[in-house]
Amino acid sequence: MSRGSSRVKSGAPLAALGLLVLASCGGEAQREADLVLLGGRVVTLSEDAERTPGEADGLAAVDGRIVFVGADEGVRSWIGPDTEVLDLGGRLAVPGLIEGHGHFWGLGESKLQLALESAASWDEIVAQVAEAVQGTPPGTWILGRGWHQSKWSQPPMPSVQGLPVHAGLSAVSPRHPVLLTHASGHMAFANERALALAGIDAATPDPAGGTIVRDGDGQPTGALRETAENLVAALRDETLEWNHVRRVVNIAAEECLAKGITSFQDAGSSFELIDAYRQMADEGSLPLRLWVMVGEGNESLAESLSRYRMIDRGDGFLTVRAIKRSIDGALGSHGAWLLEPYEDMPESSGLNTTSLEVMKETARLALEHDFQLCVHAIGDRANRETLDLFEQALAGDRDRRWRVEHAQHLHPDDIPRFAGLGVIASMQAVHCTSDGPWVPDRLGEGRTAEGAYVWRKLIDSGAVVTNGTDAPVEDVDPIASFHAAVSRRMANGELFEPHQRMTREEALRSYTLDAAYSAFEEDRKGSLEVGKLADVTVLSRDIMTVPEEEIPGTEVVYTIVGGRVAYRHPSIAAPGDG
Fold first, then answer.
1. Helix 380-394 vs helix 356-369: angle between axes, to the nearest 10 degrees?
2. Pairing of strands 465-466, 424-426
3. What's the mean pLDDT in 267-274?
4. What separation in angstroms does the CA of 281 have from each of 266, 290, 370?
5. What is the distance of C-alpha 196 from the center of its chain?
6. Integer Cα distance of 102 and 97 in angstroms
7. Nearest to 444 by CA among 357, 310, 343
8. Taking 70 as the threshold, does the pLDDT of residue 11 lie above it?
9. Which of 359, 360, 364, 342 is nearest to 351 (CA)?
10. Domain with 340 in it
11. Are residues 418 and 459 in the same domain?
């Protein structure tokens, strides 16, 4: 029995199973399939080889569910005059890929802002803002995202704590408030106009869990670490406009579907945004499946949580059954909460962004309303405090599937606690290879080697490890994260602690069956079995067998959601074309 097989519960609907039984017995009640895939290599991840082999040639789907998986000869019996038939031509088909931790709304909005991730210096970013100012009416916010000071080719001048000061930015945007979000999402940079609108000056105290970075004279530099960024970001809070909601949702969905993602685990949305998702689900206009964590404070949770638990709303397109809280910040912003000080900022051990008392009340509310609790924890102290909280709240109940989001840096003593407590390690493999070049600067070589991104140690201890990208922190591309999981190869060609690699099957499971398990959805997602949702991703290369260096060049050929082709590669003609 393979790792985790005891977790998988096959819950095929009786109607679908009835179809299969009638077909296998030669009964005349078999319907033609809506969709058939054949001529491929289908990796099912099924744990029941007697019913559905671990590999097949194709599958058939009726009413959004899989009704047959097997050899081409059997698949062809489901073809009728109205069946859409996709000949895979030997390509790889896998269970629909699940983004295990991302920010769906943030992904869509990021496409409407300045893209700063490719900037090689602060001067380039200032130039981008100067250009944006030229076509923007005075008083309009200029927003951007993606900068990271550790990835610049040269440090900004002048600088404080390695971060720029706002003078140059303010000079090119005197009549526009500017807010530029760090790649991690855990720090932002504001110009003088935005600071003034927020009332931030030398006398403004640091908020709890945040830092207003100041120069030697005590003046704000423009850098706002962790909760301090909310002092400016809150100025933009507005009631959601419906056309804008649809636009952002569709932009995010198009990006996901083009990269093979059929389900998205959203790491924190407001009740207002969930209301919009619910309306779209009810009218059948959500383009892919959303599993949403509620990102609200305790007072709001206590008032409204009982009205928001929903499972498979809109024919399986919306589930809300989890709460998201953050106990610390990010390593890149020096906000991750550590047991020992930062190597490159010894005066700091990071930030506790939500007090332990508040976290305890959130845990109580989660138990009361039967919600999963998902806690953002990056530093080793943050992870220890979170595991302590879970241990106390769960009192031996290992079936709640509470989650630690990121689990990036762990003390060795805490690694086995994940499996022992039944806690999911919701990790993002691409963070490892993206952050790797500067992680030792923050943690030192010793702490990096023993506890940074240790998914091999977690898996070997029996923990469930899932995968994702934290989009828009990273590109939502699952192929890049899969490659990071199995290679640990950074952009500079070097390997980051390569002994922590996943196998290819483990990496695929982390994006499918284990991701489904982490959301209580393994009975309907994560493997290609009769009765489960017909969510399938078809790839141009066989990522399970090609040489490791060929994985990144893999493209998505088809993304299938509920038996419907939601994306096809531009090189593939749609039915009726031509």
1. 40
2. parallel
3. 97
4. 15, 9, 22
5. 34
6. 13
7. 343
8. no
9. 342
10. 327-520
11. yes
- Tokens 């009982």 found at: 306
- Going by pLDDT thresholds of 50, 70 and 90, the confidence category of residue 236 is confident
Evaluate whether residue 99 is within a structural domain: no
Q: How many Å apart are CA 403 and CA 405, to the nearest integer? A: 6
Residues 6+ apart with CB under 8 A from 383: 377, 404, 407, 409, 410, 411, 414
CATH code at 453?
3.20.20.140
Angle at 205 between CA 202 and CA 210, to 5 degrees: 115
Cβ neighbour number for residue 172 with a 10 Å cutoff: 18
Same domain, 423 and 338: yes
pLDDT surpasses 60 at 27: no
Residue 372 lies in a domain: yes
**Quick one: pLDDT at residue 54?**
81
Tell me the whole-structure pTM to 2 decimals.
0.90
Measuring CA to CA, which residue among 104, 99, 92, 98 is closest to residue 556? 92
Tokens of 186: 């855990």
Least Cα distance to 375 among 384, 64, 542 occurs for: 384
Domain assignment present for 346: yes
pLDDT confidence tier of residue 48, bands split at 50, 70 and 90: low
Cβ neighbours of 447 (radius 10 Å): 20
Assigned domain for 100 exists? no
Residues 6+ away with beta carbon under 8 Å from 378: 328, 329, 330, 331, 336, 337, 406, 407, 408, 409
Same domain, 337 and 465: yes
**Mean pLDDT score, 67-89:** 97
Q: pLDDT band for 52, please (50, 70, 90 cuts).
A: low
Dmax (CA) for the chain in angstroms is 85
Q: Please list, in sequence order, all residues whose beta carbon lies within 8 angstroms of the beta carbon of residue 41, skipping any fewer than 6 positions away.
A: 55, 57, 88, 90, 91, 92, 93, 542
Q: State in Å, rounded, how far the first CA of the chain is from the last one.
A: 49
Q: Do 120 and 245 reside in the same domain of the chain?
A: no
DSSP 430-459: HHHHHHGGGHHHHHHHHHHHHHBS-HHHHH
**CA-closest candidate to residue 114, choices 87, 133, 137, 88:** 133
Q: How many domains does the chain have?
A: 4
pLDDT of residue 574 exceeding 90: no
35 or 244: which carries more pLDDT confidence? 35
Beta strand ranges found along 148-260 (DSSP E): 159-160, 163-164, 178-182, 187-190, 210-214, 220-226
What count of residues does the chain have? 578
User: Do residues 555 and 415 share a domain?
Assistant: no
Contact (CB, 8 A) for 534 and 59: yes
Side chain identity at residue 471, one-letter code: A
